[in-house]
Amino acid sequence: MARAAIDEYLYLLDAAFAGPDWHSLLTNVRAVEPRDWLWLPPGGARPIGEMVAHVGACKYMYENHAFGDASLKWGEPLTNERRLSAVTADAVAELLRWLEEAQRAVRASVHALDDDRELLRPRRTNWGEMKETRWIIKSMIEHDLYHAGEINRMRALRQENDRWAYERG
């Protein structure tokens, strides 16, 4: 049972989600201040709180369709992307617990793969298309990094520190 590729995907899932580097999702989410969570820039439609909820909802959706019974639908409580309606310490903590549980579910399903050959197995996506398991895992990694950057940019605009570090001195 070869698992080197599965182990590498697990490493990358962990790094993209909660790695210590500046580009991980949780590193960027932890830099968000209370006043940032529901702020919208001019012309904006999705606050950071909704972006974070979107990432978690997609984790639940992808995991359920690729590794589960494909019963989860958009608009259900588990996939509610507007779950942060008020910024309180408890509400933010609950959002982050829910997000971390979504990551645990994804990670557990990837960890449960028997061997690297399963990475080539076609699995369901939430839009009905069949994709190789490795494509689905890769997409979840990319999704974390994409939204980490989006959250970082929006946070920097709100906190008015949107300059390169070398320019700030």
Report on the structure:
With 169 residues, this protein is mostly helical. It has a single domain, classed as Four Helix Bundle (Hemerythrin (Met), subunit A) (Up-down Bundle). It is 56% helix and 4% strand. The longest helix is centred in the C-terminal third of the chain and has 27 residues. It is globular. The N and C termini lie far apart (52 Å).
Q: Which CATH class is shown? A: Mainly Alpha
Helix % is 55-70%
Helices and strands: which structural class?
A: mainly alpha
Please indicate the count of domains: 1
For the biggest β-sheet, the strand order reads 1-2
Helix run count = 6
What's the CATH topology name? Four Helix Bundle (Hemerythrin (Met), subunit A)
Biggest sheet descriptor: 2 strands, antiparallel
Strand proportion: under 5%
H/E topology pattern:
HHHHEEHH
Shape: globular
CATH architecture: Up-down Bundle
Give the averaged pLDDT, no decimals: 96
Any idea what the radius of gyration is? 17 Å
Query: How many β-strand runs?
Result: 2
Unreliable stretches covering 5 or more consecutive residues: none
CATH H level: which superfamily?
dinb family like domain
For this entry, give a set of tags.
globular; 2 strands; single chain; two-stranded antiparallel sheet; mainly alpha; Four Helix Bundle (Hemerythrin (Met), subunit A)
